[in-house]
Design brief:
Blueprint: H1 3-19, H2 23-35, E1 38-43, H3 45-60, E2 64-67, E3 81-85, H4 92-103, E4 107-112, H5 118-122, E5 125-128, H6 149-170, H7 174-178
Parallel strand pairs: 1-2, 1-3, 3-4, 4-5
Enzyme class: isomerase
InterPro entries: PHI/rmpB, SIS_dom, SIS_dom_sf
GO molecular function: 6-phospho-3-hexuloisomerase activity
Length: 185
Amino acid sequence: MKTNQYVVVILEELQQAAERLDAGQADLIVDQILASQKVFLAGAGRSGLMAKAFAMRLMHLGIDAYVVGETITPNVTTNDMLIIGSGSGETRSLLSMAEKAKSLQASVAVVTIFPESSIGQLADITVKLSGSPKDNSNSHYSTIQPMGSLFEQTLLLFFDAVILRLMEKKGYDSTTMFGKHANLE
């Protein structure tokens, strides 16, 4: 198969994943973000990169957003929210973060392939995405992509869709958001 043909198949997989999304679950995350004082993002590996991209867009919307583990990340309080991106929902470090956030009475949301996972059971809001775990075991979805790629790509698209919904609710457009874009580059 040629490279462009792979791209077509990947886009078809993403289209199928998008059609499986539950809009109600997504709206719960949007509403909780708007109700929170600070929003914390966490994920491991490539899922963590998607979380960082989401944190940046939240900041562009004027929302106090932080990536867990960064040196400028403040403390979590009762009025805050932790959003975790985890395909398996079992990553030990992320589970520990979710437990800590819950003990501090912050709300916890997880975006995962497995809502029944340890983090999923702990979370206040669980969003199920399509995808295969990194080892392709225990998967209901077939993908040509390696490891967790389908989940990670769908995670980024889901986070971008949440941003669009937040923009709509706040009455923002790209021009408004650009006012918070980095300017020391």
